[in-house]
């Protein structure tokens, strides 16, 4: 059993996991380790964010908050991280229906392409695209994927609007359009 996260245990690191990058404030060269989130520049003393820090594990690891702190919480609520968790849960819920999962994933990709023009919450739209295929299991999937409470309520409204046959909510209209484009 590991005493530390394998991603942060330096026994598993490669030479490329320690690197130099210039300070964006003064240009001084700084040495970063892959698990450094921010460092203080030795020259100008300003905080510098690690340009290669990738908290990808924060999307799925249940210990991410203990390991990464607030960075993990911020990352877990990024639309792409939420989308990934929802897709995993949808696949678990519909293991014998890969075509339904594929349709939801395809519609989600379409929605991402047209999202900017709509001015709606990306997380709500992507979740609704994926969860439209889940039917009554949508609520439990959102719970397991740990969606924020406000997003859960908005997604439920969008799904109800879509079920009505004539979507009126902007997010529901976008989801319907994404499905039409992905067909």
In short:
The chain has 183 residues and is mainly alpha-helical.
Describe, in plain words, how this protein is organized in 3D:
The chain is mainly alpha-helical and 183 residues long. Helices cover 49% and strands 9% of the residues. Helix 4 (98-114) runs antiparallel to helix 5, helix 5 (122-131) packs across helix 8 (170-182) and helix 7 crosses helix 8.
How far apart the termini lie comes to 46 Å
pLDDT averaged residue by residue: 84
How is the largest sheet built, in terms of strand order? 1-2
Tally the helices. Answer: 8
Major sheet size, sense and barrel closure: 2 strands, antiparallel
Instruction: Give the helix/strand class.
Output: mainly alpha
What portion of residues belong to β-strands? 5-15%
Rg of Cα set: 20 Å
Shape: elongated
Percentage of helical residues? Answer: 40-55%
Topology, number of strands: 4
> Could you state the order of secondary-structure elements as H and E?
EEEEHHHHHHHH
The residue ranges in which pLDDT falls below 50 over 5 or more consecutive positions are none
């Amino acid at each position: 059993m590991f005493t530390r996260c394998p991603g942060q245990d330096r026994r598993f690191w490669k030479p490329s996991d320690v690197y130099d990058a210039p300070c964006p404030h003064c240009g001084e060269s700084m040495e970063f380790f892959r698990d450094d989130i921010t460092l203080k520049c030795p020259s100008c003393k300003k905080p510098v964010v690690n340009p290669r820090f990738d908290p990808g594990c924060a999307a799925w690891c249940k210990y991410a908050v203990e390991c990464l702190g607030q960075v993990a919480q911020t990352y877990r609520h990024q639309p792409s991280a939420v989308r990934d968790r929802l897709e995993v849960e949808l696949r678990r819920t519909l293991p014998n229906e890969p075509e339904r999962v594929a349709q939801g994933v395809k519609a989600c990709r379409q929605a991402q392409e047209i999202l900017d023009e709509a001015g709606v919450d990306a997380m709500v739209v992507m979740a609704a695209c994926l969860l439209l295929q889940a039917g009554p299991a949508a609520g439990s999937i959102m719970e397991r994927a740990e969606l924020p409470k406000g997003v859960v309520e908005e997604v439920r409204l969008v799904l109800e609007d879509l079920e009505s046959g004539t979507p009126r909510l902007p997010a529901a209209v976008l989801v319907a359009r994404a499905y039409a484009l992905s067909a």
